[in-house]
Amino acid sequence: MKDKDDKLNKIISLAKRRGFVFPSSEIYGGFAGVYDFGPWGVELENNIKAQWWKKMVYDRDDIVGLDSSIFMNPKIWEASGHTKGFSDPLIECKECHTRSRADKMLEEVGVVADEKMEEAEIDKLLKENIDKIKCPTCGKKDFTDVKKFNLLVKSNLGDFTGDNSDPAYLRGETCQGIYVNYKNVLDSMHPKLPFGIAQIGKAFRNEISPRQFIFRGREFEQMEMQYFVRPEEEMKEYEKLRDYRWQSVLDLGFKEENLQWKQHENLVFYAKDAWDIEYNYPWGFDEMEGVHARGDYDLTQHSKGCGKPLDYLDQESGEKFIPHIVESSGGVGRTVFAILCDAYTEDELGGETRVFLKFKPSLAPVKVAVFPLLKNKIELVEKAREIYKEIKKEIPQAMFDDNGNIGKRYRRQDEIGTPYCVTVDFETLEDGAVTLRDRDTGEQQRIKIEELTPFLQNAINDVD
Ligand code: GAP
Fold this sequence. Notes:
The protein is an alpha+beta fold. Helices cover 34% and strands 27% of the residues. It has helices at 2-17, 39-58, 75-79, 82-85, 102-108, 119-128, 175-179, 182-189, 234-250, 297-306, 332-343, 378-394, 406-416, 426-431, 449-460, and strands at 21-23, 35-37, 63-65, 87-92, 99-101, 147-150, 153-155, 168-170, 195-204, 219-229, 259-263, 273-281, 284-295, 312-313, 320-321, 324-331, 344-349, 352-357, 368-372, 398-400, 420-424, 433-438, 444-448. It is globular and about 75 Å long. Glycyl-adenosine-5'-phosphate is lined by residues 173, 175, 205, 207, 216-217, 220, 222, 224, 287-290, 327, 329-331, 333-334.
């Protein structure tokens, strides 16, 4: 447990120290369940999102993209079942008033609480297992009864009642924006089944106990793709999507032993099957993304909700039916976190312990850093700036650094996972070559300036 906490703390500390992830509103004492991505965090996020978009849109002739709004007609959340059923079981410690998720507390002691269970059933399980359960803050065992707490986040957008009795919701999942645009995509793009719609965007949930850094937040980003299929092909397409997502995740450079599939034990009533790709986070394997077979539930509900048919017309056979949906749904934050954990490496270099992030070059926030050996030698600084500008024309994620001694600059770049560093020294002025250092091995080689950019372009071009 201590080792696991140590690793988690080391990653959280590095993420903050090196500008990946900051707690939100920190100078005001923070704001639970919300994080900000710093200068390198946003680059890492963007690289992950770009690779997801490539896999899910550009590499596929059968999938198109979408960017739907965060706010939607509140009737959408009624039709989807979220206003009634999108809840977690809440308990409160009577001693210190810490609120917790009863199902998670039970899970931690090896008891599964079914999503469909009524409050009284979860209460019963809690009482049966109370010897193993305690308040995470004060350690007492005196809790209120379980109460279902709805996770939708309300706003007063367009609600002028004054008492928030006509709320609009911030979306709880991005896929609802896809379902309600399915007909628009059909009418504008005329795709044939099977086809998919992909989108990346923010989602909001009033999580009772946001925890584990960016793993469970109240504001987070999802990458979702909904694939519309003929009913009889649902399970075949589902298998294909699972294989496709597994390979796509591996292509991000994860160590395969840190990934596993887990089937959901308790399915929501409309789902045919659901599997998660779990990553081995510092506390153990936990959900990073899911692949779900959702049947015709979503389009049927929205067709009933809006009172309009959402059928698909097969032009050749004349058949009309509601397509079934298989979905891939992942979190940007959870993937960033998993990539940070997977890349985090400690080794010994030059007799010293060092920490570095062994990112696949295409994911690294900075691909190459250029240094003048000495900051106060104008001729070295000018030459290094000249080389840096040339590289940046082809590789925008490059940086210039002349702060501190060379050893410190290498360490800083190691900690943000920069695969290559280039040093301009006095010899450069004579022989037109620079020192190129490899992050993983620490090895250095001389390379001609004119060969540098093509070498780097080739070395960082590892997107599968
Ligand atoms: N449309 C299906 C759906 O939203 P989900 O399992 O609730 O399914 C999908 O969420 C993914 O979104 C998760 O696998 C996770 O990566 C991410 N996610 C869900 N809740 C989250 C939270 N509170 N904080 C961060 N990421 C979250």
